[in-house]
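Fold these two proteins, one after the other.
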Amino acid sequence: MGHLQVIVSIDSREGAERIGRALVEARLVACFQVIGPMSSIYRWKGEIEQAEEWLCLAKTTTERFDELRERLVVLHPYENPEIIATPIVAGHADYLQWISAETAPAVRS
């Protein structure tokens, strides 16, 4: 099983925390960290923009990524949200096992 760190940016702490809670509750991520605020400068629809954003780091497995990405697109307020997954190539074995356990789909009775 592979593990990923997923980067997402958003325009408010409240929005980040709302999305993070929903993703953890759905077991799509084991952890959702919110960092910020930060300043983002980017080109959007032909114009250079600058905005205050919060950076979010989510820990998940490769098996859960497609569903995570789909849920993020639905929950996120941006037209084109930043969703970038980076493989975790090494880490503390117990922590990686924790990610796997916390993102395992819930067993329904």
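Now the second one:
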Amino acid sequence: MKRRKAFAVDQQVEKILLQCTRPIGAYQIAERLPKVATTQVYRALERLIAKDRARRINARNRFVAISADTDLIAICSKCDEFQLLECPDFVSGLANLCDSRAFRIREICLEMAGTCRNCHNGE
């Protein structure tokens, strides 16, 4: 397999993430990029996460494209559709609470599972 430049793989992976309306796994991304190994996809995802351009959904082991302002991801438990939410007051409140208890935050990963409007109306 020919070695590809990391920047090119990052762009391809991010393009797929941006096109997806549901969280997607690394293997699913690799299937869409036949000339890219799964290990390259994982490395690209790590770089995109470090740049605040992607986030791993811990509860599902899948990934989504985000903006730097994304604080919270709301995921529908029925259809997997997701919404990216900004809630800076909530995050700063958590940070203040941790500061008051001398707890050092390494990262905050806020995910909510529930039912989206479409699935909720279809019940």
